[in-house]
Amino acid sequence: MEDSSLGRGGASSDNNKVKQIWWRIWCMNIPNKIRNFAWRAWRDILPNKVNLRRRMITKDELCNECGGEPETNCHMFWFCEKAKEIWENSKLVFPFHIEPWWSFLDVVWKIMKCNASNSELLETTITICWEMWKNRNAVRNGGPRSTGKTIVKRASTLLQDYRAATEEIPPTRPSEAVKWHPPDHPFYKMNVDATVLKELQATGIGTVVRDGEGKVLAAMSKRVLAPLATLEAEAKSMEVAVQFAWEMGFRDIICETDSLSLYQALVGSTEAPTCIDTIVSSILLSIQHFCCISFSHVKRQGNRPAHILAQFTRHVRDFVVWLEETLSLIEHACA
Ligand SMILES: [Zn+2]
Questions:
Q1: In Å, what is the CA distance from 302 to each residue of 46, 175, 299?
Q2: pLDDT in tens, 126-135
Q3: From residue 183, how far is each of 108, 186, 190, 265 by CA, in Å?
Q4: Å from CA of 135 to ligand 1 middle
Q5: Cα(46) to centroid of ligand 1, in Å?
Q6: pLDDT band of 4, cuts 50, 70, 90
Q7: pLDDT at 29
Q8: Which residue, among 207, 298, 193, has the nearest Cα to 246 in the 3D structure?
C-alpha cells in the first residue's frame, strides 16, 4: 500500500504527517465550523452510518442516498453517485486518483502534497464536503435534497463571503500594520492571550516565549475550566503564563498582552478594575522571584501567535507545551 495511508499504523512518521495536516487545516482561511468539521472527518468521528453502527446506535449502515454501499466518509464524499454528481459540477481536478479504501485524512494529505504552497484546492474541497454533509443531515431530518450544482454553488458563495469578510479586518496600509518587536538581549519576550470558549464553559490561554531573534523557545496552549469574562480571561492568562515562564526557567522576561486595561493595571498606571483585582495582586506577588520582569502592551495584530495558541485550545483537552520546536501552527504569524 502506498504512503498515503495514514492513521492506521501509528508510526511516528505518520504522527508527523497528522500534525502537519492538522496545522495546515488550522491555517486555512475557512470558517471555524468547517475547520471543526474537517477535524471530525479526519478523526473519523463524524456520525456517518458506519460509525453509528460501530457505536451500536443503528444496525443499518447502508448509504441513504444510493442504498448500495456502507456509508463511510469515503463512500459519502467520493464514491456515492450523489458525490460523483457534486464533484462533476465542481469542475475541480484532483491531480491523483482516490482509492475506495482511503480515509478523509488520506485525501487531505494527497491534496496537501500536490499543492504545497496553495490552499485553494484544499479549502474548496473541504468546504464542498461540509456542504455535502450539511445537506445529507438536512435530508435525514426531512429537509430538501439539494442538487449537486446547488451544493457546489453554496460552497463557493460561502468561501467568497467569508474571504471578503475577513479581508476587511486588517488595516489597509501596510505601513500602519502593528508589528511585534523582539526583546533586547538578554531578555526574552512572552506574548500572552486568552479566548473565551463560551460553548465549552472554559477559557483558552495561549503563550509563546521568543528570544531577540524571534526564535520560539517555548509555547503553550492551555484550557482552563472557568467561563470567565473577557478581561478576567486576559488577567488569568497572564497569571498562568507567568507561572509557565517561571517553570520553564526564564528569569529575564518581558510579558506582553494586547489588553490595555490589564497592562495599565499591572504597571499601576490605573487602578485594577474590581473584577481582576485579585488576579493582578496574585501576578504581582508571583513576579517577585524573577531577576528582571516587566510588562508591555501590543495591539492585537502584534499578538497574533499567542492569539492562535489560545484559539488552538478548542482542540486541547488540558494543555500542550512545545519546546524549541518549529511550530507550524504559528509560523506564519511569527514571520
Ligand atoms: Zn451512496
A1: 36, 14, 6
A2: 999 999 999 9
A3: 39, 8, 9, 22
A4: 14
A5: 16
A6: very low
A7: 82
A8: 207
| Domain chopping of the chain, boundaries | 12-167, 188-334
Length of the chain: 335
In the reported structure, the alpha carbon of residue 4 is separated from the centroid of ligand 1 by a whole-number distance in angstroms of 24
Ligand 1 centre to CA of 249 (Å) is 56
What's the CA-to-centroid distance between 9 and ligand 1, angstroms?
28
> Which three cell numbers, joined as nine digits, stand for 280?
493582578
Q: Does domain 188-334 have CATH number 1.20.58.340?
A: no
Distance 99 CA to ligand 1 centre (A): 15
Strands 202-210 and 188-197: antiparallel
pTM above 0.90, yes or no: no
- The grid coordinates listed for 125 are 474541497
Rounded Cα distance between 107 and 105, Å, is 5
Distance from the CA of 85 to the center of ligand 1, in angstroms? 11
Specify whether the CB–CB gap between 334 and 305 falls below 8 A.
Answer: yes
Ramachandran region, residue 44 (left: φ > 0; alpha: ψ -120 to 50; beta: rest): left
Q: What is the pLDDT of residues 148-178, one digit of tens each?
A: 999 999 999 999 888 888 765 544 454 456 7
